[in-house]
């Protein structure tokens, strides 16, 4: 019993460790005397000396003290606040290395949850970006005061210190430019900034979104109350300094919360919407409308979905978790019919509007859960050939997976933003379905996120 106790790490202990792999959040994973340790900022193959920062049930957390043997994939992070911010977990890895590591994260997930098929799976190289910087089309930055200066940023990693990142290297340059100017205008006009602890002050968050294809920009100022000092002057100065801002909106959030948006949104100047396009599809983006954050990679992702769906013009397609309908609309011109569902009513209204705007007559959208709506359609004699699922990070609802096994579409295309829940869900379907391939796509370079498109084909005899 004593030897087991000795082998366990203690708080503050310094120890040598070799990093075996990256975890799902981009942290290095190593083992010290068979105890698993998570260490941010290190790479597989590196030999490091680390210091224990936390002891949890079944694992320990540590920080790197020094690197004895460095990985050839290691680079110096170009962002000056990389370590404080924590928004990019992988900036210390070359971009080619990131694409390899993301594929490996997917491989690990399948080895863990689908042992019986993992060894023979076709997990393809990650599809990356030609230029993996300045790709995000939207920024949401908290506003604060630092030495009488207005700053805008995110709360630091494991802290409540606001880190100014209004010149972020993964944000579109135009959103950075608008944020910098808006900070300056707020400061020059002496407009009060919200203080979270005291629950006082006006301006909480600067939200900036660019429609990349049209160049139109929308600015949303989130405030603690509707009225704030020098509002009209603020609007005039934004219009003068930033003519590219076509929509100036105000959202009110007076709650003590970390949620960014409140329920009420007003137009202060310009248009209610900005116009964006993906491929041949056009979208009107309102202040709170969901839209993919990396349009360049979204086109690649949706093209992979289309390829996996193998449409001939005769298929009935279900777009489960359809949101505002983007994936279904991407497929609609090559399918016989597309039906989508989502539990969010506003998203379904947007999906209907988007389909109508594009002149699609072969689409139908309803509010509800796929596992309730699908059996009803089957009962009415409408059976899908293909089901596309794009669930949240928590994966598919078990009832939906059971419904898929009952309905037995010829193909299932699973779009995932979480390799662990993807592999867990696939494990429940592989009795009846064959996994053709898994295609990782890098939607968020320099972060630990990886999206996948997976194609499942119904086994013969089912």
Automatic annotation (TrEMBL):
GO terms for molecular function: methyltransferase activity. It comes from the Bacteria. GO terms for biological process: methylation. Keywords: Methyltransferase, S-adenosyl-L-methionine, Transferase. Residues 8-66 form the TRAM domain. S-adenosyl-L-methionine binds at residues 292, 321, 342, 390. The active site is at residue 417. Its EC number is 2.1.1.190. Pfam families: TRAM, tRNA_U5-meth_tr. Coiled coil: none annotated. Belongs to the class I-like SAM-binding methyltransferase superfamily. RNA M5U methyltransferase family. This is 23S rRNA (Uracil(1939)-C(5))-methyltransferase RlmD.
